[in-house]
Amino acid sequence: MFSATHSVLVIFLIFRGTNGDSVNQTEGPVTVSEGSPRTLHCTYQTSDSNPYLFWYVQYLNKAPQLLLKGSKASQRAEHQGFQATLVTRDSSFHLQKLSVQASDSAVYYCALSDTVRGAAGGAEHKPKGSRRAEVSSLGRKR
């Protein structure tokens, strides 16, 4: 049984990439106390000089939704306590949250694209590669 003073974050990874472009998340199962900081790593490879990176979140029994996006024109993104900065010299777009909560339990996807379409219907990009991290949280800090 898990301690009531810890949240358990379980991260499962699935890789998909095409055209030589890809993203890579190097995470495994971790346990952190609720309220602790957490970073989900995302690095990418592309021949595009102006890539677009995205973080999507999918909560239990819900459709995936855009959480953050970054590009050379807008490198830093923040939303609902999450933040990510596109660092082209490192080819990275790491997702960070300073205080993880049980309500953050979800599946997190990092995606890469060379084109951004209009936001009609929620379609934000044409993915060239993506990776998924599933974050499960159990227990609460009291």
UniProtKB/TrEMBL annotation:
Keywords: Adaptive immunity, Immunity, Immunoglobulin domain, Receptor, Signal, T cell receptor. It comes from the Eukaryota. Residues 1-20 form the signal peptide. The keyword Signal applies. Residues 21-136 form the Ig-like domain. GO terms for biological process: adaptive immune response. InterPro entries: Ig-like_dom (IPR007110), Ig-like_dom_sf (IPR036179), Ig-like_fold (IPR013783), Ig_sub (IPR003599), Ig_V-set (IPR013106), TCR_variable_region (IPR051287). SUPFAM superfamilies: Immunoglobulin. Residues 123-134 have a biased composition (Basic and acidic residues). Residues 119-142 are annotated as: Disordered. The keyword Signal applies. GO terms for cellular component: T cell receptor complex. PANTHER family: T CELL RECEPTOR ALPHA VARIABLE 18, T-CELL RECEPTOR ALPHA CHAIN V REGION. This is Ig-like domain-containing protein. It comes from Sousa chinensis. The lineage of its organism: Eukaryota, Metazoa, Chordata, Craniata, Vertebrata.
